[in-house]
Structure formats: structure tokens, C-alpha cells
Write a structure and sequence with these properties.
Belongs to the glycosyl hydrolase 3 family. The protein is an alpha/beta fold. It has 15 helices and 12 strands. It has one domain: TIM Barrel (Alpha-Beta Barrel). The strands form 3 sheets. An 8-stranded parallel beta sheet has the order 11-9-7-6-3-2-1-12. Strands 4-5 form a two-stranded antiparallel sheet. Strands 8-10 form a two-stranded parallel ribbon. The chain starts with 10 loop residues before the first helix and ends in a 14-residue tail after the last helix.
Length: about 400
């Protein structure tokens, strides 16, 4: 965050959410405090956040003591479609993976049952896994008792309403044991026919940027925010669940438009950045998720210092492109490109994560994946996991922020 502490949400912001969401449950968590910066203004240039030296040192020390296989497992986010807590615990214990993504098949009937389920995913409380969910609200909401305003409702509301909605949504997730929200769509499109149209926070770069910042501010300290789908799905027509969308947009054109919400979200302190399976062919013919150049741009041009995570790698398989038919090869290529965590849901089985771990180990042994690259990825992921352990039920640290903001 750009400020070390946040002041209370204004009554006006709460009123906006109340007007948008009259059906919100009275027992819903109270939105957390917010930044004193004006949410309605376009993001102003801010110093690029950098990782806490202490957090990184502790993470580096932990990773240095791990074997190659343990490091490989730590950068894999897995999934099995069940609510059986014994099965889930055994899955995490046997694979040693660093994260788990909840989908609809993992969501039980109520919050108490979900809390028990997420608790079962932790094998070592000193190094809890990252437990993630796609909880955008509205059309993409795995947790059905989320009645906060959806992105399509927030597009025409003041950014303060976005901040309050995402603060409430984050509190709902945290109370259920979810610690990462893949929930902030930073894409931009004015195309009413786009599959993303109801999921975005703004139809222009500036409008989207102000609401992305508001969403990150709202979630800060409660869950780890993720902005997606970098470098911007709106410019590339087509649904990446079935094809590899592409655009001839140049890098300069991207910098002037689709980059703005991502830059704003990164400067606001979002600790995770999800890379999409879409190609800006004038920059790199490969999908951004497999592109070293797009990872360089995120790190060097936008100053991102957090965890780069892939969108579901199973989507690459679904594209029908022969080069992306092997999930293990996709995962290795994603790490080589610069991702820090890889996840697969579509086409996955309980054996997928172990196979991916084996493939990562083999890639390190063959030299295809540099040991230093795996160590870098594992250290970034570990910093978040250690932050969770230290926070307990309290506010989460901002791993991409210095003490001054």
C-alpha cells in the first residue's frame, strides 16, 4: 500500500455499497479501514513498492534448507474436486505443494464447513499453503453467500464503493480460511459482447485503474490480492478458456491503454499478478503466461516485486495447440518464462501435481530450468506463506511494501 496505515471508510462509501447491495447479509463482516487517498481520482505516480528485506531474508533462509524436490513442490498450486477433508489433507501432505485453488466442487454448504475444509489443507502451520479462490463477485463467485456488489454493478459507481465491496468480500474470504483472492480483473474492454464485459471494473483504462486501486486497497491486510489477466485480455478478442486470443497491439499502444490498470494495481501493492494465456504478437508470439519478455516488462517497467502466477494451465491444453498438449511441459515453460507459481485445474487429476513436481525436478537436473530461477520463485512464494503464519488471525503483511509505504 502507498500508506502504512489506513483511515476508516467514509459513510459515503458505505452508503454507496448499501445502495448497490440492499440484500447484503446483516451478519457480513464489516469492511476494513481504507486508504485516505481519494479513490475517485486516477492513480497518481507513486514510488514502486519493494519487498521487505526481513521477509525476503527469512524466506530465502527457509528455501535454502529445502531440497530441489521440496522447492519444486512449493511453487505448484494444486486442485482436487472434493469436500472430503481427509482426502484434501492427504493430498496436501503427500504432494508437499505450496498452494491449493478452491473451485465450486470444493465449496460446502456454509462458512463453518468451508473453514473446516480450508483448515484441512494445512499440513505445517509454520508454512501454511496459499489457499486461493476466484471470488470476483457476480458472474465469477465460487462462494455463493457472497452478496457484495458485482464488478458490473461497480463499473458505474464511485471507486469508494469498489473499495468497500472488496473489503467486505475479503473479510468474508478470510473468515472462511481463504488467503488469496484471484478476484481483481484489471482488463479493459468496451465491447459489450466480450466474455469479460461483466467482470471488469471499468470500460476505459482510467476508470478501470481507479477501481483496481480501490479493490486492492479494500482487500489489503485481509487477503492477498491478485490482479489479472496480465498484460490485458480486453485487447485480445476471444475466450482464452478455449483458444489463444491474440492482438497486434504494439507495446507503445499497450503502455498508453491496457497497461494503466495493471500499473496502478502494482503501485497500490498487489502481491500477486496473474499472467493470461493471450498473445500480443508484436511483443511476443507466445502467450504472455509463457513469455519471458512479458515477465521482464512486468518486473522492469512496472516494478512488480510479488508472486507471478499463471492462469489455469489447463486452458492452454484446451486451446488444441499441439505445443501445449503436455501439462508438465507447460508448467516447466511457465517457470522458465518467469512465473513463480503454476496451477492447473482443467484436465487435472490428483496425479497432475505430483507429475508436475517430477517434471520441474527433471528440468532442473537437465539444466532446462535454472536452479536459481526455481529458488527465486520458491522464495517469493515462501515470503507469502511465512507472512500468513506470522499473521495468524491478524492483519496480513504487505510483502511488496516497505515500512514507509
Amino acid at each position: 500500500m502507498r500508506a502504512a496505515h489506513r483511515t476508516t471508510l467514509t459513510a459515503a462509501a458505505v452508503a454507496l455499497v448499501a445502495a448497490l447491495c440492499a440484500s447484503c447479509a446483516a451478519s457480513a463482516p464489516t469492511p476494513s479501514a481504507s486508504s485516505s487517498a481519494s479513490a475517485s481520482a486516477s492513480p497518481s505516480p507513486a514510488p514502486t513498492p519493494s519487498p521487505s528485506a526481513d521477509a525476503q531474508a527469512r524466506a530465502a533462509e527457509a528455501v535454502a534448507a529445502m531440497s530441489v524436490r521440496e522447492r519444486a513442490a512449493s511453487v505448484v498450486m494444486g486442485h482436487v474436486p472434493t469436500t472430503d477433508t481427509e482426502v484434501l489433507h492427504d493430498y496436501m501432505a503427500s504432494t508437499g505443494i505450496g498452494g491449493f485453488i478452491l473451485m465450486g466442487a470444493n465449496i460446502p454448504a456454509d462458512e463453518a464447513a468451508l473453514r473446516a475444509l480450508t483448515s484441512s489443507l494445512t499440513v505445517d502451520p509454520a508454512r501454511p499453503p496459499l489457499i486461493a479462490v476466484d471470488q470476483e463477485g457476480g458472474d465469477v463467485a465460487r462462494i455463493p453467500w457472497d452478496s457484495y456488489p458485482a464488478p458490473y454493478e461497480l463499473q458505474t459507481a464511485e471507486p469508494a464503493a469498489t473499495q468497500a465491496a472488496y473489503a467486505g468480500r475479503a473479510a468474508l474470504l478470510r473468515s472462511a480460511g481463504v488467503t488469496v483472492n484471484f478476484g481483481i480483473v484489471a482488463d479493459v474492454t468496451a465491447d459489450s459482447g466480450s466474455f469479460l464485459r461483466r467482470r471488469i471494473l471499468g470500460t476505459t483504462p482510467d476508470a478501470a485503474a481507479s477501481r483496481v486501486v480501490a479493490a486492492v486497497d479494500g482487500e489489503e491486510g485481509t487477503v492477498f490480492s491478485t490482479i489479472k489477466h496480465f498484460p490485458g485480455h480486453g485487447a485480445a478478442p476471444g475466450d482464452s478458456h478455449a483458444v489463444i486470443p491474440s492482438t497486434p497491439l504494439t507495446l507503445d499502444q499497450w503502455r498508453a491503454a491496457d497497461a494503466l490498470p495493471f500499473r496502478a494495481g502494482i503501485e497500490a501493492g498487489a502481491p500477486l499478478l496473474m499472467f493470461g494465456h493471450l498473445a500480443y504478437t508484436s511483443v511476443d508470439a507466445a502467450p504472455a503466461s509463457l513469455s519471458p519478455e512479458w515477465h521482464r516488462i512486468a518486473r522492469e517497467e512496472l516494478g512488480f516485486r510479488g508472486v507471478a502466477v499463471t492462469d489455469d494451465l489447463g486452458m492452454l491444453e484446451s486451446s488444441g495447440v499441439p505445443a501445449y498438449a503436455d501439462p508438465v511441459r507447460n508448467a516447466v515453460a511457465a517457470l522458465v518464462a518467469g512465473n513463480d507459481m503454476v496451477l492447473t485445474v482443467i484436465h487435472s487429476t490428483p496425479d497432475t501435481a505430483p507429475r508436475v513436481v517430477d517434471g520441474i525436478v527433471a528440468a532442473v537436473e537437465s539444466g532446462e530450468l535454472a536452479d536459481e530461477r526455481l529458488t527465486e520463485a520458491a522464495t517469493r512464494v515462501m515470503a507469502l506463506r511465512l507472512g500468513l503464519a506470522e499473521a495468524g488471525d491478524g492483519p496480513l503483511p504487505c510483502p511488496t511494501c516497505t515500512a514507509g509505504g
